Fold these 2 entries.
Entry 1:
Amino acid sequence: MKASAVILGAGVSGLSVAMGLLKRGHGVTLLERGEVGTESSWAGGGILSPLLPWDYSEAVSALALRSMATYADWVKAIEAQSGKIAEYWPCGMRVLDTPRPEDALAWCATHGLTAQPGPANPGDLWLPGIAQVRNPRLVAALREAVVRLGGVIHTHCQIEDAAIQTGRVLSLRTNQGSFPADRFVLATGAWSGTGLPGLAGTPNIRPVRGQMLLFKLEPGVLESILYRKGLYLIPRRDGHVLAGSTLEDAGFDKSTDIATLQRLHAEATELLPVLGSIQPIRHWAGLRPGSPDNIPVIGRHPDFENVFVNTGHYRYGVTMAPASAELLVDLMEDKSPVLDPAPYSWQAALERAWGDTL
Ligand SMILES: Cc1cc2nc3c(=O)[nH]c(=O)nc-3n(C[C@H](O)[C@H](O)[C@H](O)COP(=O)(O)OP(=O)(O)OC[C@H]3O[C@@H](n4cnc5c(N)ncnc54)[C@H](O)[C@@H]3O)c2cc1C
């Protein structure tokens, strides 16, 4: 076996790095403060693309597009390893009332994304290549794959202290004992900005709350993702439809409110009128690991040569999971990564600042 790694945080970011390391022969222990995959990775929608892909920097596009190109195979490998189904579905996405559709179409053409203008309204774009995954099921499959590959997962594990010596972390002391390792990975999602005893928090990461509604229709009523002006509907194959989401600066508060439920319900009904005659069966909120410009931090911690981070994927952590894990594992093995790692470095994150909007 190669070097051992301890990973903090068992959301999609921690689990996908765990799988990448295990597949390359490393030993992996995951330490999760709560339950596996019950934070943002559970709460999200599972759309496998930025919502308006042409609206982001090349740093976001590079990670997202590389992930999107490999997602089907990545999920297939996880399903084969775990025996669990993640419900990857290339259902396509319809974007209605796109501002500047010519620019959007030109961007898609240069980035290899198929896009067709709608016959009635040229602002309606059909993106047939966009897929989705049922994120709670993906996380369950990832967890099983990690365990079957020999990874060890400790839940309800609280970090109390880090043993540090000359620029290296030697071990983490927890309420379940001490965990020494050759390398450590911080993948603690929205909590990454807070830091840990002896370890500085990742710069500029903060929680951004998102509220979601879930409806139950007959299968087949909606067959593709629909997006208009900040609101999306995501159909699942069994007839469930998710409606989301909000972007809220509410700290670490995951509560929901009735006014938002009513607003999301009304906007969802505008997109799909049948939703007006039924009530949502569930309403929840999750905390995204928010980062300025949605650019994650993937790379080495500046204070310790054997500590790495994979966090800050904000609105697209499920989408970006395969390429982010590939990038980090390459960096941990001192291999030349496929993508330029510079935009995702700690130093680059220090230099980015939040604007006025989330
Ligand atoms: C409403 C909503 C909709 C979304 N929709 C989409 C979408 O359609 N497509 C998409 O790609 N993305 C979407 N996202 C974003 C996506 O869910 C996140 O970017 C992604 O899940 C982040 O994964 P993560 O593993 O970094 O964080 P998390 O899933 O939050 O996992 C972090 C884990 O770290 C643990 N932890 C924290 N502190 C510690 C500690 N000190 N020690 C040990 N463990 C710790 C937490 O308990 C948690 O389990 C959405 C998010 C929300 C909230």
Entry 2:
Amino acid sequence: MQKIYIRPCVIGLGYVGLPIYIRLQKKFDAIGFDLSKDRVKSLKKGIDLNKEHLKKEICSNKKSFVTDKIQKIKNCNFYIVCVPTPITKSNKPDLKALLSSCKILSKILKEGDIIFFESTVYPGVTENICATYLENKTKLKMNKNFFIGYSPERVNPGDKRHSIEKISKIVAYNTNIKKNINIIKQVYKSITNKVVLVNKIKEAETAKVIENIQRDLNIALFNEIFVLCEKLKLNFNQVIKLASTKWNFIKFQPGLVGGHCLPVDPYYLSFIAKKNRFKMSVLLAGRNMNNYMKTYLYDKILEKLKKLNINLNSNILILGITYKKNVADTRNSLALDIAKKLQKKNRKIKVLDPYVSNNKNIRFVNSKTLNYNKFKAAVVITKHDSLKRIIQNFKSKKIPVIEFFN
Ligand SMILES: NC(=O)c1ccc[n+]([C@@H]2O[C@H](COP(=O)([O-])OP(=O)(O)OC[C@H]3O[C@@H](n4cnc5c(N)ncnc54)[C@H](O)[C@@H]3O)[C@@H](O)[C@H]2O)c1
């Protein structure tokens, strides 16, 4: 087989892009590109401010490097795009970052280049929007001069058990040129050996969003049952335990749903459904339920404080504000929203989160200088493992600790 020189470049070095860059370095001289100068500056020092990866992983190949300079990535021939795909204020897909990365690519695209998109999108974005944009901005044609693919990402921040090299990864392409398929296999098999090859990009795009939507909906159902049990004064855990004795009952945990995926993806799919004159009401009902949980939990906190005879004007400590435990991500965090709302009510309410210390809208206390006795109660919203000792200390000092979903 002819040896082909592959120089991969990862565009967007966040939760998704950084682990891919780290894996690629093991086999190739890879380049990581990010528009954020701050992100590149810290990664150059081997620091991942998302607290997911260590210096020895980030800086493992001396011939690989990270950059914010477009000129430095122009000689690469395999680009992997991992930029954010959030929603707008009116819950519409926001493809600005994706189009901005296509704009960058259009300036450096050359004959034979392969571009893979990993950002979560609705079916059709990769071929109809990204590839069309590239064709329009260059004189190059898809599947003649350049090639595209889509590989959805399943990375789960904070979860060391399902790290990228251990999980299966869908890799979709629409070329039938053997040389390209061979390159695609080489690149993706260096990331994980559990590659699932498929030649329909739109199917892979849809599979990715429905993985997250299924989870969002299932949690929504459990949240709804949780709230109902509360209203009916029933023991939720006992109800679920009983239902679980049936062979096909599937268990989920109720809780706050946040982050860059679950609260976003249903809007992507319902957007394209609407464009095709189909209303997806089930998945949006799930979204509404999960969003409602922040109002529910906020009211519960007030109710529990009242029961304990603790005035809302007291010194109260909120523990954990990221969207889920053991991660630093506060995007779409309902815990953060609750903390902000509580702090608006009372300036004496403080926050402690070992993963976050620099949110300008939040008043923090430092764990090192924490004066337990100052607080009348602690409210645990996101229970990071590293908070366990602090929670235990509050309990041993007989200071009430308010917790949920246990
Ligand atoms: N976070 C997750 O757990 C997760 C899991 C699976 C899939 N995804 C999907 O992966 C994609 C990326 O998400 P993420 O969480 O890694 O985002 P992120 O915000 O952590 O990282 C994105 C990075 O891209 C950079 N960036 C933005 N526009 C750029 C551009 N035009 N050129 C170069 N860099 C640019 C940003 O500076 C940032 O560092 C999204 O589509 C998301 O839905 C995320």
